[in-house]
Structures
1.
Amino acid sequence: MLSVPSTLLRSSFIAAMCEFEELVGTADANGLSAADLSWPDRFETYVRRLAEGSLPWQRTHAGARVRCWWWVNDGEFIGRISLRPDLTPGVPHANHIGYAVRPSHRGRGHASAMLAAVLPEAFRLGIDPVILVCTETNTASRKVIGRNGGHLSVIVDGHCHYRIQR
Ligand SMILES: CC(C)(COP(=O)(O)OP(=O)(O)OC[C@H]1O[C@@H](n2cnc3c(N)ncnc32)[C@H](O)[C@@H]1OP(=O)(O)O)[C@@H](O)C(=O)NCCC(=O)NCCS
């Protein structure tokens, strides 16, 4: 289920960040580590700011707000997805939607379901086509996008640019 970031998900969110750190060396929390987030004050501030869209990177070049949701299953944090309403001119591989699923829960259809849940929000904002970009070697993400109606428009420097139309 698509949910607004919530402090109620603290333990599963931190457990997920530990999984990211183990797999790729860093958490998936905008520069914060699992250890940083173990401080209740820091976690609460991070979640509040993420939910209200006030983290610095959540302002787009045109002043719109990047919206972030968490994907929750059985009361646990599973992944995150963000929607950027406008593409920054000149930024290579600019895209509207980014997502990640915690490593222990991959391959169960969560990312596909998460993207399917956010696409109507994008269309409601007038984004059409929705642009998604992933590396050519990111087979899982390419499957997720393809399953949601993505058409590969071009490959630039090893990055696949997909379009999803309403
Ligand atoms: C990409 C990502 C979000 C996919 O999440 P997920 O919940 O596992 O995705 P889904 O289960 O909905 O679908 C993934 C599909 O790719 C397949 N897959 C996963 N890894 C694969 C691999 N290395 N080779 C081939 N297929 C692979 C899965 O089996 C599944 O296909 P299936 O349902 O036909 O079996 C996840 O791998 C992730 O968080 N990666 C790191 C962040 C990232 O790359 N984000 C996308 C940036 S654009």
2.
Amino acid sequence: MLSEFFSLIYPSTCLNCNETLISAENFICTACKTDLPETQDHKNPENELFQKFAYNSIVKSACAFLYFNDGGIAQKLIHNLKYEGLHEIGDYLGELFGNTISDQLDPDIVIPVPIHKKKLRKRGYNQSLGFAKGLASCFERAEVREDLIFRTKNTQTQTRKNKLSRWINVDNIYSDTREDLDGKTVVIVDDVITTGATVGMLCDKLKEANANEIHVLCIARR
Ligand SMILES: [Zn+2]
């Protein structure tokens, strides 16, 4: 269903190699889709991404769909997703990844990492929402919730800061949740995870709200 819908809106060329797309292809051609740099994190519970959250016992798993390499396909896709208005790339990748991992997870709630309202106004959408929706469509009963928790601080872009100040910078950037998450299994969804610091803060807030367990999924990791 989704793929037919996308091909109606985006008939053009592969975002990675510029080959003309045929009707069954979306955003990238079949060759580039086959070559997607998948991490296979879901087959390795102790993967590098999970190690970033292992200190927090509420985080039960963490998986990235792709490796993020400079100039690579994941970077091109995420650039288009975040800065060129092609937010449907998120839905597309979410469904691809969801089909791979849906037998491993059965969450109650899927939360796209909240972005500050100023950023939301500027971009027009949360770049993690589509990925969250695509994933949720593959789970049994998951509900995507954008209204549970908010980003209250619009901190400076983290990539410009050194490792230490990143950790200081992200202190208390989220609101409390608007509901108790009593015993719920939550999936947190992000676009790119580098240090994991902001997602870690979000995990702490969900823990305070009595979530039972958290799983972290992202489009790509560095
Ligand atoms: Zn291609």
